[in-house]
Design goal:
single chain, alpha+beta, three-stranded antiparallel beta sheet, 15 strands, about 20% helix, dioxygenase activity, TauD-like_sf, oxidoreductase, AtsK-like, TauD/TfdA family dioxygenase
Length: about 280
């Protein structure tokens, strides 16, 4: 797709692109915003380098895409509850997003877009991987597509935010702080194959962090099919890898991606700032 106000350099043939010619510290014109929006839909995840963004500026830009969310479990900043300050002190392992997942699929109306800003970045390590669930769906056999069509998956935060395994975060003894709410236990249902409301393209919409089982099946019956989809959809052919630098921004479309934060920089501190944009409708 052509863009008139930005430069877009794809990272792979199916996912990821770096955008140049944009200053996110300033308000974008409607034309430039539309180009950025279209590039995000086309490439699933986009990256910007050397951006000076205040917390207020990050929220202002996020609002162009929709309504910033206040997470029901992870505590946001005192000044801006919609912003989560993702701090990993030196000497601790990363523990936020360190596994393949799609953000907040345990919401009835899941997060559509996430924006992450790198402030203090280690000299090496801490890359993030994103996988295209559209490319993965397209690569399925016709028989598998027919089998999956119409199936519904059950999602919950129950495992990922289990207080028995994340006690320090609930007790306020960790750099990330959780607060317990009914959102931890609620189960929601989403179609296993999701259609993007803008592009019309289909994606696999399950992930190992928040998907519990397939509706109408037991956990044991669901497990082999889900395991196959998790492994198939995150093959190297379907993902890109981004090396963070200070003042880098990543924005990704949760309607058609999974991502994975590498935990390979224990000796270094990292500080990032995250905002998510809520969906208006349930997936179809």
């Amino acid at each position: 797709m052509g863009y008139s106000t930005i430069e877009v350099e794809p990272l792979t043939s199916c996912i990821g692109a770096e955008i140049a010619g944009v200053d996110l510290s300033k308000s974008l014109s409607d034309e430039q915003f539309q180009d950025v929006h279209d590039a995000l839909v086309d490439n699933h995840v986009v990256f910007f380098r050397n951006q000076e963004i205040t917390p207020e500026g990050q929220l202002e830009f996020a609002r162009r895409f929709g309504t910033p969310e206040v997470h029901p479990i992870v505590e946001g900043s005192n000044a801006h509850p919609e912003l989560i300050e993702v701090l990993k002190p030196a000497g601790e392992g990363a523990s936020f997003g360190t596994g393949w997942h799609t953000d907040n699929t345990f919401f009835e109306k899941p997060t559509i877009i996430t924006m992450l800003y790198g402030i203090d970045i280690p000299p090496v390590g801490g890359d993030t991987l994103w996988a295209s669930m559209e490319a993965a769906y397209d690569a399925l056999s016709d028989g598998m597509k027919e089998l999956l069509d119409g199936l519904v998956a059950v999602h919950s935060a129950r495992v990922a935010f289990d207080p028995r395994h994340t006690r320090e975060k609930y007790e306020g003894k960790h750099s990330l702080k959780y607060k317990y709410s009914e959102a931890v236990e609620v189960e929601v249902e989403h179609p296993l194959i999701r259609t993007h409301e803008i592009s019309g393209r289909k994606s696999i919409f399950v992930n190992p962090m928040f998907t519990l089982r397939i509706k109408g099946m037991t956990d044991a019956e669901s497990a082999p099919l889900l395991k196959y989809l998790y492994e198939f959809s995150t093959k190297p052919e379907f993902f890109c890898r981004f090396r963070w630098q200070e003042k880098s921004v990543a924005m990704w479309d949760n309607r058609c991606t999974q991502h994975y934060a590498m935990n390979d920089y224990v000796q270094y501190r990292r500080f990032m700032r995250r905002v998510t944009i809520g969906g208006d409708t349930r997936p179809v």
